[in-house]
Design a protein that fits this description.
19% of the residues lie in helices and 33% in strands. Strand 8 and strand 9 form a beta hairpin. It folds into two domains: 30 residues; 191 residues, no CATH class. The chain has an eight-stranded antiparallel β-barrel. Strands 3-12 form a two-stranded antiparallel sheet. The C terminus is likely disordered.
Length: 243
């Protein structure tokens, strides 16, 4: 084989190798459900799901009482908090202790969670928006899309917030559904919060449908929002959040 033929053969082999590597990288790329949503610079990119708990790594954004823009990030749930959120009975106990009447046949669905923190000073309460996921009925989407696809604008999302002392409070948030054409939708939640640290977003199901729970006003002093299992949880205090 002369030099020209050897050079041509080498170039062809190099081209085949490059094509093979490109196809491998493409095959490993995230599916449409893991792509950024593009809304307000918030991303739906997720790390692998930890059991049933989907951690929300996209930034939550909002404003405090003075109108200052607030951005929070997820520093990762502890194993103890994950175990609480994966236990249907413990989550229902948190709701009950907060004064909600939870039906006997009810089940809870954790739509997303995170241990949120910020480096910013917060004045008063913060009106926040957290993206829970996105997708379409035809093509699917984020890993929790089956739990999100039936949520409608204005639906109640229960926000469980673990405070610095290990107890939990329950805040009612409102679902925000944004449509982007071709059936693609993004589901987020608006909620007013006084601090961050571990936060979980849930819906309550009964007879196959999401329900709004009745609530009795319970004096704060009488509410025991932790169990023997949760009092031992070590909570990381978020800097400059007051929680």
């Amino acid at each position: 084989m002369n030099k020209k033929m050897k050079r041509a053969a080498a170039l062809m082999a190099s081209a085949v190798l490059c094509l093979s590597m490109s196809m491998s990288v493409f095959a490993a790329s995230p599916d449409a459900g893991d792509l950024p949503s593009g809304n307000n610079n918030q991303s739906s990119v997720q790390t692998p799901v930890t059991d049933e708990i989907r951690q929300l790594w996209s930034a939550g954004t909002g404003t405090d009482a003075d109108g200052n823009k607030i951005t929070v990030r997820n520093q990762g749930l502890t194993t103890d908090v994950e175990e609480i959120l994966k236990d249907d009975a413990q989550v229902k106990d948190i709701l009950t202790d907060a004064g909600y009447a939870v039906p006997d046949d009810a089940s809870v669905v954790v739509l997303g969670a995170g241990d949120f923190t910020t480096d910013q000073e917060i004045v008063g309460d913060a009106d926040m928006n957290f993206v829970l996921g996105s997708g379409s009925d035809q093509y699917g989407g984020s890993s929790n899309w089956d739990d999100l696809k039936d949520i409608k604008n204005g639906d109640t999302i229960y926000v469980l917030h673990q405070k610095h002392d290990g107890t939990w409070e329950v805040i009612e948030g409102k679902a925000v559904v944004r449509s982007f054409g071709s059936g693609y939708r993004e589901v987020s939640v608006d909620v007013t919060m006084s601090g961050f640290s571990p936060v979980a977003f849930i819906k309550v199901m009964s007879n196959g449908e999401a329900v709004v729970l009745d609530k009795n006003e319970v004096p704060q002093a009488s509410v025991n929002t932790t169990t023997a299992k949760t009092t031992t949880v070590t909570v990381k205090t978020s800097p400059k959040t007051g929680e």
